[in-house]
Amino acid sequence: MEKQRTYLCIDMKSFFASVECAERGLSPFETNLVVADESRGKGAITLAITPKMKALGVRNRCRLFEIPKNINYIIALPHMSLYIKYCADIFDIYLDYFSPDDIHQYSIDEAFIDVTDYLSIYKLEPKQLAKKIINEIAERTHIPATCGIGTNLYLAKIALDITAKHCKDHIGMLDEETFKETLWEHRPITDFWNIANGIATRLARYGIHDMKGVATAPEDLLYRNFGKNAKLLIDHANGKESCTIADIKNYKGKSKSISNSQILFSDYAYDKAHIVIQEMALSGCQRLLKEHLIASHVGISVGYSKDAAPTTGGTLKMVNSTNLYSMVKEYVDRIFEDTTHQDVPIRRLAICFSGLVDESAEGYDLFTDLDALQKERNVEKAVLEIKEKFGKNAMLRGFDLQEGATQKERNKLIGGHNGG
Predict the structure, then answer these.
(1) Domain 184-248: which CATH class?
(2) Cα separation of 28 and 50, whole Å?
(3) C-alpha distances in angstroms, 216 versus 89, 233, 235?
(4) For residue 100, is the peptide bond before it cis, meaning its omega torsion is within 30 degrees of 0?
(5) CA separation (Å) from 168 to 50, 175, 184?
(6) Cα 36 from chain centroid?
(7) Pair 259, 352: CB distance under 8 Å
(8) Whole-prediction pTM
(9) What is d(CA 352, CA 316) in angstroms, rounded to the nearest whole number?
(10) CATH class of 15-79
(11) DSSP state of 5
(12) What are the DSSP E strand ranges found in 356-412?
C-alpha cells in the first residue's frame, strides 16, 4: 500500500504589503498601508493591502479612489526586485529543512512542500513542523505566514485558503474525511481553488451550489458540461488529487507560443502605438533568440480607449519561420496598418509568436541571403549578451527613444511594476 503523504502549503500573508511594512519596521497588523503606483492616478489598482486595512473593510486589489477618505494610510510604491529578494530569502529557509526536490514554488508568495519523509527525521507532527517553519520565517524576515496541511496537494491548498482562516494559529488541516465533514456544504463554491464564477454559474443551473452537490451529481451531466475537466472537478469534490510534487518536477512542458501585452500609460494615437508594437515585436524576437526558437506565425491585438471600437488585429503566417526582427517587422506592420483604426485612441497592445520550433529547424528558399541573416543573428545575440551583463537599457534602438516609445521605461519594470 502506498504511503500516505503529507503536504504543507505556505502562504505569505499580504506579501507585498508585509514586505513594505518590514522595510519600515512596522507591523502589517497595526499599519494602514497599500502597495500601489500613485503616479498612475487615483484609478491605480492596489497590488496589496495590509491585514489592518482588510479589517477596516477595504477590498484587496481595489482602486485608490475606492478607499474611504476617512482612512489615513501609507501608499508604498511597488518594489518588485525587493519582493523577489524576500521570496529568495524565504526559499532559503525552506532549503534549511527540505530538499529542493520536495518544494514547489507555486507563486512568489506561496509554496507547496512534501514533508512526508521529514516528519520522522525531525520527530515532529505536521502542525508542529508547520509552526516551526512559520515562526522561523517571521523571525528572519518579519513576514507573517499562514499554512494549510493536507494529505494531497489539493487538500493542502484548500486547508490554506478556507480552513486556516478560521484557526487561531492560522494553520488548517484536512484529509479526505475531514474535508467532507467540514467543507462539503461550504458556500460559496467559488471559495474553492479552480472554481471561478463561470463554473459556479453553470453548476447553479442544475441546482449545484457546493462540493457535496458536485460529488453526488450524475457524472454524465458534469462531463457533458465540462468535458475532460469534469474528472478534476469530481476528484476535487471528493477531496482527491493524484498529482504529486514529483509529477510537477518531472513534467516537461512544450511552449507552443510566446506572447506579451501592455496597457499603455495614456491614450495613444495611431503613429505612437505603431512604434510601441514595433518595440514589442523586437522584444519578442530577442526572447525567441535567447531561447533558440523560431516562430512560423505572428499576431497582434489592438484595444481601444474606453472600448470606443472593437479590438482589432490578426495573425499572419510568415514565409519562413524566423526569430529575426528584420523579417518579422513587415508582417507586424502589415497587420497593424491593415486593421488598426487611425482615428480612435489606443490603450492596449498585444503580440503573439506561435508555431515555435527549435531554430535548428530553420529553412529558407534559394533567394534568401543566408550570410546577411547570420550576421544579423550574431549582432542580435551580441546585443543580448550586453544587455544581460549591463542591463536592458544598455543598448536601445532608435525607435526606443522616439516620443511615445515605452520600452525604455518598461525595462525598469518587473511584472509590469516598478522594479526598484
Answers:
(1) mainly alpha
(2) 5
(3) 45, 12, 12
(4) no
(5) 18, 19, 22
(6) 18
(7) yes
(8) 0.68
(9) 11
(10) alpha beta
(11) P
(12) 357-358
Task: Find, among 419, 361, 370, the residue nearest to 393 by Cα.
Answer: 419
C-alpha cell recorded at residue 92: 532559503
Residues of the chain with CATH 1.10.150.20: 184-248
Interstrand relation of 257-268 and 346-354 (parallel, antiparallel or unpaired): antiparallel
DSSP 4: P
Name residues whose C-beta falls within 8 Å of residue 138's C-beta, 6 or more positions apart in sequence.
Answer: 144, 145
Fold observed for domain 257-418: Dna Ligase; domain 1 (3.30.1490)
Q: pLDDT tens string for the chain (420 positions)?
A: 678 999 999 999 999 999 999 999 999 999 999 999 998 888 889 999 999 999 999 998 899 999 999 999 999 999 988 999 999 999 999 999 999 999 999 989 999 999 999 999 999 999 999 999 999 999 999 999 999 999 999 999 999 999 999 999 999 999 999 999 999 999 999 999 989 898 999 999 999 999 999 999 999 999 999 998 899 999 999 999 999 999 888 865 555 789 999 988 788 999 999 999 999 999 999 999 888 899 999 999 999 988 788 999 999 999 888 988 988 999 999 999 999 999 999 999 999 999 998 877 655 544 445 566 667 666 766 666 665 656 555 454 544 445 544 544 544 544 555 555
> Phi and psi at residue 163, in whole multiples of 5°?
-65, -45
Q: Could you identify the residue written with the cell 477618505?
A: 69
* In contact, 6 and 112? CB cutoff 8 Å: no
- CATH 3.40.1170.60 intervals, the chain: 15-79
Q: Which three cell numbers stand for residue 345?
A: 485612441
| Alpha helix segments (H runs only) across 196-253 | 197-204, 211-216, 219-226, 229-237, 245-250
Whether the CA torsion 224, 229, 233, 238 is positive or negative: it is: positive
Strand, helix or coil for residue 19 = helix
Amino acid at 276: V
- Quote the cell numbers at residue 113: 512542500
Span(s) in the chain for CATH 3.30.1490.100: 257-418
- How many residues would you count in the chain? 420
Report d(CA 310, CA 299) in Å as an integer: 17
Q: Return the residue matching grid coordinates 542580435.
A: 380
